[in-house]
Amino acid sequence: AATESADEVALEQALSELDLTQRLTAVGTMLLAFDAQFASAGLDRFDLQDAKLLGFEDVGLLSRSARLISLNVERDRNFQSGIFMKGVVETDRSQWSVDAAWRHLDGEEGYRLEARFGGLDVQEFLGDQATADVKSGSTLELRIVQPFDANGAPKDGLMTATLSGGKLDIGADLQTAMADTVLNFQVFPAKNQIELAPSMLRFSDMQA
After folding, report:
1. 73 and 38 in contact (C-beta within 8 Å)?
2. For tag attachment on the chain, is the N or C end more exposed, with fewer CB atoms within 10 Å?
3. Neighbours of 4 (CB within 10 A)
């Protein structure tokens, strides 16, 4: 039977509260401008280390600050079809790995962002109040495939969240363990909506 864990519900709620259209448009506009500047400067590679990420407190996660430990940006030298990005971000709670590609779509007017964020702490999505009631030992890997039109406006996209198996305590009365779980989302910027597909979750060692 399909069921939802506290991790899943908290993640779904956090995603549903995002202003998708505004934030994805900002991402598309930023990447479009960065890609153009990167090309006009004639650069093949760009490296950045140890920089504070301004405005991170507005992202909506439990951590209120973050630093970019390293960032490497390279142009696609083989096909000149975009840029590749690889980096490490450190927050108050965890360290993330970031791999991304900004691709020019062949035969179409538009772009596609493909990104993977690894090592995220699930507690980041639970918020201050929920962390008093729910304790999760799971980590999260987030994969995003997000198309944009020629002006950087977002189209419908896909997102996959992989939760690692780990301990899950709900209040003082329920302790269990969750197996590895993959959650698939559809992203609809025009409707400011993220839809979570039904998922099968497995638990073990449940004690109450």
Report:
1. yes
2. N
3. 15
